[in-house]
Design brief:
The protein is of the alpha/beta class and about 325 residues long. The chain is built from nine helices and 16 strands. The strands form five sheets. Strands 4-1-5-7-8-9 form a six-stranded mixed sheet, with helices on both faces. A four-stranded parallel sheet has the order 13-14-15-16, with helices on both faces. A two-stranded antiparallel ribbon has the order 2-3. The structure holds aspartic acid.
């Protein structure tokens, strides 16, 4: 089986610097080459993205750097492993499910909470498990972390310190965007913002976002309520008039939205806020980027946003 490992950056390959850990060339590469030389890993090729980044600095352009590397090597390899920083790994995993339409091979994202050169690092184990899984996983984008094999468009970083740092439910559909043939979707830069409601919050940012942004992910309470406020209502009205999609998600990590349950959420229906059901925040943001990049018509954008595309949401609440 031909395997390509793409080193994109992140703690797994970092070394100590004056300002703290930062990405370094060769750390992951040397470890993998050594494992191959000792017969512990099967032979594989390694591509290092330039520059390597702390995933805190990732943008949709960085998602595309990974996606295009996979696309350009699609014919030559049977499976792909991506070594990535953990902070935005869930965004990248979801983004890859939207970018790689017709994906027929496994793509495994992994990383580590401690650099691979540090005593007791989780990197060696995560890499070894990724190598095992890339040889048997079904087609799709998966995250391999701390012994867990997780759904790429449903995954979220759930712990900031423990090795077992990711969670995802299994999802209703596999983590891939099906299509008749392989096709790479390129994300373009948009003005998208994530807005969370909070008790007594200022409406200023919501109003400004509604007047200026291309898309908004709105983090509602629980099953889909928001505080009663004229400013927020005005913002939702403005977004609707401007054709700016407002994509609602829940602040609760489990369960998702059930819009229409409470009068306190009626304003969301009134201004046609799009029901994200149980989509994660990360997948909602990535999906908005890709749908805006692919489709200019507001009604079709709305339709695509509320329809499962790559297993990122359940069909019904
Ligand atoms: N800041 C690092 C990153 O996301 C954290 C990690 O990889 O664990 O690149």
């Amino acid at each position: 089986m031909a395997i390509l490992l793409i080193h994109a950056g992140g703690t797994i390959g970092m070394v100590e610097s004056d300002e703290g850990f930062s990405p370094a060339q060769g750390v992951v590469e040397d470890h993998v080459n050594q494992q191959v030389a000792e017969g512990l890993f099967p032979p594989m090729d390694i591509v290092r993205l330039d520059p390597l980044i702390d995933s805190a600095n990732a943008t949709p352009h960085d998602w595309h750097r990974i996606a295009i590397t996979i696309a350009e090597n699609m014919e030559a390899y049977d499976g792909f492993i991506v070594a990535h920083g953990t902070d935005t790994l869930a965004y990248t995993a979801a983004a890859l499910t939207f970018a790689l339409e017709g994906l027929a091979k496994p793509v495994i994202l992994t990383g580590a909470m401690l650099p691979i050169g540090v005593e007791g690092s989780d990197g060696p184990e995560n890499l070894a498990a990724s190598v095992t899984h890339v040889q048997k996983a079904p087609a799709g984008v998966w995250v391999q972390f701390a012994g867990r094999h997780l759904h790429g468009s449903r995954v979220r970083k759930s712990h900031s310190r423990q090795f077992d740092a990711f969670a995802a439910d299994p999802g209703e559909y596999p983590p891939l965007r099906s299509g008749p043939a392989f096709r790479l979707h390129q994300p373009r830069p948009w003005n998208i913002v994530i807005l969370a409601v909070a008790p007594g919050m200022s409406d200023n940012v919501a109003r400004y976002a509604a007047e200026t942004c291309d898309g908004i992910v709105l983090r509602c309470y629980g099953s889909g309520t928001v505080p009663h406020s004229e400013g927020l209502e005005q913002a939702l009205a403005t977004a609707w008039q401007r054709g700016c999609p407002v994509f609602a998600v829940s602040q609760c990590p489990e369960g998702g939205l059930a819009l229409g349950t409470y009068a306190a959420g009626a304003v969301l229906k009134k201004y046609n806020v799009i029901d994200g059901r149980d989509i994660t925040l990360e997948a909602a943001y990535a999906k908005l980027v890709f749908i805006l990049s692919q489709e200019a018509n507001f009604d079709r954008q709305r339709q695509m946003l509320q329809t499962p595309l790559a297993g990122e949401m359940h069909t019904a609440s």
